[in-house]
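Case 391 in the screening queue. Each case pairs one protein sequence with one candidate compound; here the compound is flavin-adenine dinucleotide. For every case the pipeline is the same: read the inputs, emit a complex structure as tokens, and attach any notable structural observations.

Predict complex for case 391.
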Amino acid sequence: MIDFSLSEEQRAIRDWVRTFVRRELMPLENEALRRERQGHPPGLTAEERHGLRSLARSSGFWGVSTPQEYGGMGLDAVTEALIETELGRTFLTFKFGGEADNILYHADEEQRRRYLLPTIEGELRSCFAITEPGAGSDAKAIRTRAVRDGDAWVLNGEKTFITGGNEADFALVFAVTDPEKGADGGVTCFLVDRDMGWTSEPIDTMGERRPASLVFQDVRVPNANVLGEEGRGFALAMRWIGKGRYLLPARALGGCERLLDMAIEYSRTRETFGAPIADRQAIQWMIADSQTEIEALRLLVLHAAWLVSQGRDSRHAQSIAKLFGGVKANEIVDRVLQIHGGMGYTRELPIERFYRDLRLLRIFEGTDEIQRRTIARDLLKGHVKVGAGLT
Ligand SMILES: Cc1cc2nc3c(=O)[nH]c(=O)nc-3n(C[C@H](O)[C@H](O)[C@H](O)COP(=O)(O)OP(=O)(O)OC[C@H]3O[C@@H](n4cnc5c(N)ncnc54)[C@H](O)[C@@H]3O)c2cc1C
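Case 391 output:
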């Protein structure tokens, strides 16, 4: 039996977030765009973000994916996808508070007290640092080195494109501890406080995200700050990336819905040659294709999320959802911009902002090409059979 309906709880949560986005976030958009036009950083200010999080928390909305024993809502992956889709309806990047990186739950007792709990509470900010100037898609090629020295490790190397790297109080750093073994047993994850000595520099980008490059020069890290097992860091990194890949296209889906709504509205009212452009087949086809792709994306995202919530192997489905979401969201925003003509190209409407931000989806957390590589490899090696999406 296939049941496409949401539970009552899921519907209530989705509607609550939808209202929150419409009432609290969307009214901040114009001001954020104005600030950006004047050269200020894009997105919400720290005060706005803090205020929104407090407001949500006062309604009990906090720690969406955080287990209940840590005070969170402990929601399942499908509900999380629904929430991300609603948040994606605004271009202002916002996450509810009360979250920590999934791999921080591998912390030992002391690390939990020092890192996990304060991160959940919002007292500490983390960043995830694996990419290096010479190792992006090929993450196994990282060269940041950690050498044992008594009861500490000495880290040397550079990380790049690290989201939140400028603001983070500590970094989850992946470094080579045994070059002979490489990624398979020779990479370790370290919890590295900023005041242990690493530095960061922002990287300007075309979108809201301003990642950072991090430099580690003889940074001493106590052995007590090894996260998980020594030598097992690469598996942790893949777990970090793999757990929430479906959330990226889930967010893009919300953006596409908003954009398509805008295109429908505009095409009804914009007249050329004596008739609304909505009467033209060229415009109707763009609307129809976008709607078809939005619905296909929804199913791919929810299927991947469902596999995650069932504890089943979701990697193949997540790669498909991420690839399709990245490619189609970029096609949809381009069509919506086209339907708006010159207005779409201006900064008076949020379309160009969505356009710039959605482009990132095809690059980070595995590029389009890397998702295709994974999907093809799964099939060619026989890990996944054609047509085995439903079991
Ligand atoms: C805004 C932003 C935020 C980011 N946040 C983080 C973060 O928080 N933490 C972190 O560790 N990293 C982060 N990254 C890094 C991101 O994950 C990498 O940029 C991404 O994995 C691609 O690596 P690369 O940029 O080195 O490109 P490369 O790996 O050099 O790839 C260049 C091009 O070659 C293609 N290519 C590579 N290998 C193959 C192949 N085998 N077959 C076919 N084509 C191939 C790629 O698809 C791409 O088109 C972020 C990046 C950006 C832009």
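Case 391 observations:
- The first helix runs from residue 8 to 25.
- The pocket of flavin-adenine dinucleotide is lined by residues 128-131, 136-137, 161-163, 205, 209, 211, 360, 363-365, 367, 369-370, 373 (CB under 6 Å).
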